[in-house]
Amino acid sequence: MDEKKINNKIMRIIVGDITERNTDAIVNAANNYLKHGGGVAGAIVRKGGYIIQEESDRIGFVPTGSAAITSAGSLKTKYVIHAVGPKWGEGDEENKLKSAVLSSLRKAEEYQLKSISFPAISSGIYGCPKSMVAKILVTTVAEYLKSQSTSLETIEFCLFDEETYRYFKQEFDKI
Known about the structure:
By secondary structure, the chain is an alpha/beta fold. It is built from 5 helices and 7 strands, in the order βββααββαβαβα. A 7-stranded mixed sheet has the order 1-2-7-6-3-5-4, with helices on both faces.
């Protein structure tokens, strides 16, 4: 685990299971239709319960680069923010990924949340390079914390494996 303070707020990177995080919200790397079958999304619904999928079905379509919010069922967290990142090769991936992160942060702000945990959005089955994902996520969050006041006190990246953690640590150390 590594932490930095930016404007008296904590930015953290850890290796772990995002479904076990006790933050106010966790971010799900979602698809446009919020069908939570595999990867992070599948794990969230398996652990949190089908209510998350039912609420997602009521939301319906979410454009790439946007986010939606549901309850968290029986997870430790209160909310799941479903961020739709880009698929590698569709074009403009960096801007779409940055937009997904900012949309998630705005959604957390709207609900006056104090803490949020992000996975490495788009780096799994969506195929975006982990190095690019780490750079976009870390720099976007750091800029967000530097540029405005926010209800968020802790923003963390909960990473699934050591390889992904190393990419995030490289970017984290540049801040």
